[in-house]
Amino acid sequence: MKTNPDVVIIGGGLAGLTGAIHLSKKGLKVTLIEKSEFPRHKVCGEYISNEILPYLNWLDIDIGKFNPQQISSFEFTTQNGRIARTKLPLGGFGISRYTLDDILYQKVISNGCSVVKETVTAVSFENDEFSVTTSDQLIISKLVLGAFGKRSNIDQFLSRGFIHNKSPWLAVKAHYLVDIPDDVVALHNFNGGYCGVSKVENNIVNICYLADYTTFKKYKNIEEYQKNVLYKNKQLESVFENGRLLFEKPLTISQISFDKKKPVEKHILMIGDAAGLIHPMCGNGMSMAIHSAKIASELVLEYQSGKIGLRNSLEEAYTRQWKKHFGKRLLMGRILAKILINKTITNVFVLIVATMPTLLSKVIKQTHGKPIAVN
């Protein structure tokens, strides 16, 4: 079967779903391809800065109806017990990917987008148009947005640079019932990684950590690793020992790469994690994914209307906008990660910011954006 939408979006995560909603709201014919079913749990920190709320409202999505957990404070702890706290400049909210993805997916359907639940097997570009192949369809389109996440088979056949580099990171995530402060997103340091802890809807606590694989593989299983490594941070020990696991078992993903990625690859506009993965120290990847979809969608609409005349101009404009909004944030994330992986430097850093909360607040501002303006 052959179809010809205005835009094809490969991947149905936050960026892909948001892009589909935006473009269909403006009247474009959108086909979204996603191999997995909706809704589903994903490895994710599940905290979103309030910077994204004006845009969600513009998309006709009232997040408040789904009772997200309001978050106003940030806490950072070290393995030796030092704690730094500050108020978040804009505040944010906690909502599970299971819930948020379903909200966005239902909006995609109600907007009339076509959703293809298959795996993309090939993407080619010739004579100024794309051919996207799945197991059952050939989809021809002038424009393709790549929203296929951190690491994909599509990265392989696009021969993207980072895909050939082994990454030392893996991530683990699960939901728990445990008593923690409602309004705090916490980042707990341990030997070889960081663990985020915060509430989402329905009083559920999301625990998601990034771990060094070299350290992780020394242990037989996740439980043994947590007890021998994460428990060295007493804050984490308390959370795990007093919590009740709600999943059958934690979710894991490996080969997480924080290498630089190009926002445009072989004429595909990359959005979300496909364009660049922000380090957990910045704690705001969900809002960045949604924001990147807004940027790409607005430029696609200008290209479709003729305001942007050439494909090269579209690609250059998107690259500029990506760097403008996310370049410094990604850089700050990489710098913080390198600094805070060192135990001695981490202890000194936390000692300083514990006595100067405004300094920690300024660091957070470097990793978060301003409220997104919607025209």
Helices and strands in order, then pairings?
Elements: E1 2-3, E2 7-10, H1 14-25, E3 30-33, E4 47-49, H2 53-58, E5 69-77, E6 83-94, H3 97-110, E7 114-116, E8 120-126, E9 129-134, E10 138-141, E11 143-146, H4 153-157, E12 169-177, E13 184-190, E14 193-199, E15 205-212, H5 213-216, H6 222-228, H7 234-242, E16 244-245, E17 251-256, E18 264-265, E19 268-270, H8 285-305, H9 311-340, H10 343-355, H11 357-367
Parallel strand pairs: 1-10, 2-3, 2-11, 3-7, 5-13, 11-19
Antiparallel strand pairs: 4-6, 5-6, 8-9, 9-10, 12-15, 12-16, 12-17, 13-14, 14-15, 18-19
Helix pairs in contact: 1-3, 1-8, 8-9, 10-11
Folded structure, characterized:
This protein has one domain (2-165, 257-367): FAD/NAD(P)-binding domain. It is 35% helix and 27% strand. It has 11 helices and 19 strands. The strands form 3 sheets. Strands 4, 5, 6, 12, 13, 14, 15, 16 and 17 form a 9-stranded mixed sheet that branches. A 6-stranded mixed sheet has the order 7-3-2-11-19-18. It has a 4-stranded mixed sheet with strand order 1-10-9-8. Strand 5 and strand 6 form a beta hairpin. Helix 1 (14-25) packs parallel to helix 8, helix 8 runs antiparallel to helix 9 (311-340) and helix 10 (343-355) packs across helix 11 (357-367).
